[in-house]
Each structure stands twice: as structure tokens, then as C-alpha cells.
Amino acid sequence: MRRSTAVRAAALTVLAAGVAAPLVRRRLRLRPPVVLGAAAAAPVALCVLVPRSRARDFVTCLLQMFAYITAYKMPYDDPEALARRVKVAYPVRADRLIGGGMTPTLRLQRALGTPGSFRAWEKLLVWSHWVWFAFPHGTVLYLILRHPERVNRGATRIYATFDLGLIGYWAIPTAPPWYAAAEGHMEDGGTPELRRMMVEYGEQFWRSGWAPLYGVLGGNPLAAMPSLHFATSVSAAHVLSETGFGAGLLGWAYTALLGTALVYLGEHYVVDLMAGLALAEGVRAGAPAATPLARRASAVVHAIEARARA
Question: Chain-centre distance of CA 251, in angstroms?
Fold first, then answer.
């Protein structure tokens, strides 16, 4: 009894620390390894404390994403330091090669867009970008509700895609097209100049609500390589395909629409999407090899759970 009480107390402490550390990191000047370690341990602590259920699976995913968002935002805690490290030129050069001398974003916007106005299909592209914030997690929720036997494999692949993408954000912070344009890297003497259409339409549609909304969702503007918008959508589409034809068709149709939107709207380069695709496919291909390690880790957590309830 004493042992189970001690285990539960320790798990509760870890859970509280994992939630609190990201929130107070700047005030207390906590080091990144401390914050990230605490946040990453929180989902495990929850599993020790609470018996498995759909609700626990859902909250575990929330804690996982809380840890991811923390890691995603932390490089931008010091915007000036990140701006000194950010890579701006190399994706411009790569996309100019892909686009035959002009980046595909600029080529598409000049051919199809009209500055200051938005056609219905352009609004659809913007909304597909906004919907992304729900798509990977909505896929996991769909598994929890409709295919619980697939939750472990599906959620692990989707969130592994998120987490592995962070390596690029920390190691090679890369600017998106709209930032490169603002820094003068897209100037070619032609008009119109590259637009950040999501912000233009967001200000028009949400009006005074846009600034606080973007402040919550923005996080780190210098994290474009790889495109986790595209990578996680590819992973989610694969997972949906494994549940049935209809769900897979919906997943891939959305992913194709999102990929088009990310390039056209100036949010990502084509080379960002290519890197995101490679990441997603790498996670999928590597999943069988990682399964034994994941099972051993799961067995350790189950053993701690058993002690907490003894």
C-alpha cells in the first residue's frame, strides 16, 4: 500500500511539473532540457495515474501536443537570437530551380491572383490551412472513437512525425516564403510582389479578432523546414487509409488541397513540402523497426501502473 501511494504521488508530481514547467519557463528562466523533459514525461505520468479509457487516450494526446507546442515555440522565446540564426536564402534557391527561375509561389500568385481581392477558391485554400490545426488530432480522435484497436499505432506515427520534425526547427531554423519576401529575397523587378494571403484574408474575415487569434496559433514563424503541416497530414492520410477507402479518400483529398494551399498562399516552399513528405514516409517505413522498442517502453509503463494500483 505504501509503495503504491509513493508511486502515485511521484506520478502526480511529474504530471504537475510537466504542465507547469512550460508555463513558467521564461519567468523562472528554466533551461530547455528541463522544460522539455518535464513536458515529455507528463503523458506517461497520466497513464500511471489513470486507468486506460477513451478519455485517458484523449488527454494523453493533449499532453503530448502540449509538449510539442512547447518545443515548437521555445526557439522563438528570443526572437532576435533566432533571427540571427535563421536560414533564408537556401529554400529560395531550391524553389527557383523547381519553378524554372521563379519560385512556384510567386509564379502561381502572379498567374492566378489579383492583389487586394480573394476568389472563392482562394478562400477555400486559406480555410484548408486553418483546418489543419484540427486535422491530425481529429484523425486520432476518430481512431479513439471508431477504431480503438488502431489508436496506439496510428497516434504514435502521427505524433512521431510532429516530434521528429522539431529537430529541423531547432537545428536549422528556416524562414518561410513570406518572410524571405519581406527581407528582399524575392525581388526580381516584377509585380505583384509575393503576398501573405492567409494574413490578408484573416484580417479581412476575423477583423479585430485576427491579431489575438494569430498570436495564439502563430508560435514560431521561423520554423518552415520541414513542413509539418504537410508531413503530419500525410501521416494522418495514411492512417485514415488503413481504416477504410472512404476515410482514406477524404484524408488524401484534404492533404492534396493543403499542399496546394501552403505553396500558393506563401506559407511554405515546395522544398519544405518535399522534406515533410520524406519525413512522413520515413516514419511510416521505420515504424515496424521501432515497434519492439515501443512495446518494451509500454511494458515498463504498464509495470509502473500495476505498482500504482497494487
Answer: 16
CA distance 149 to 96: 45
Question: What are the phi and psi torsion angles at 102 (to 5°)?
Answer: -140, 140
pTM beyond cutoff 0.85? yes
Closest CA to 181 of 267, 119, 294: 267
> pLDDT, tens digit, for every residue of 257-299?
999 999 999 999 999 999 999 999 999 999 999 999 988 988 8
Q: Which element (helix H / strand E) includes 16? A: helix 2-28
The pLDDT tens digits for 2-25 are 778 888 999 999 999 999 999 999
Contacts of 281 (CB under 8 A, 6+ apart): 234
CA dihedral sign, ordered 100, 178, 205, 138 = positive
Max intra-chain CA distance, the chain: 76
CA 10 to chain centre: 30
